[in-house]
Amino acid sequence: MVDVQFSDHRLAALYDLYCPSDERSDFGFYLPLVMSARSVLDVGCGTGTLLGIARDNGHPGRLCGLDPAAGMLEVARARSDIEWILADLAAAPAWDQEFDLVVMTGHAFQVLLGDDELRVALTTIAAALTDGGSFVFETRNPLVREWEDWHLRFSGEVVDSAGAAVRCECEVEMPVEGDLVAATYTYTGLGWDRPRQSWSTLRFLGPEALSAFLADAGLTVAEQFGDWDRSPLGDDSPEIITIARRC
Q: Are 233 and 240 in contact (CB under 8 A)?
């Protein structure tokens, strides 16, 4: 997925074209979890596709999406049967054991860059969970160094709702040092007055660091997988998929 915080509505409207739900392996993993939970908070919900699919499949309970990108929520708010909140976790409501499940899909967890920011976010999530509630998220495995081919994987062309071709070019800032990876996405479209850009910086943490941050927030790792087929986590696994529970 393209990890871009879309504040521009025009770019937000393109997100689901570049990341169509029927091609997302993560939704096959997350949707059963969402459907089995009475109340769900989707942090970094983007255009709200996952929650929309859950509601369309008959989820009867509370579905809440949280995202700091106004453009994304402008798209999501086309649906009025789901609760949408414009904020990040630092400015989120003071939820107190209101959700059986909190999810962060699309590698949204990786936009939490600093230690303090991460601790605040995880503390907010832990407080929002019911006793025994689960926090489920994924982050890319830093050992695989996936960013080395992003300029190929995340560059491409789609056709927008008006039938015009839009081209995205991804450029990763090299060399990568430490656990932060920055990239620029430049979009050009026929008839646009100028190119538009989005910037993304992601943090790559390994399993031990993730477990330590979760423990500090009162969350414990219950299960971890290396890919969406629930295969075991190994050094060459593309993902670190974590199911954590409130202690």
A: yes
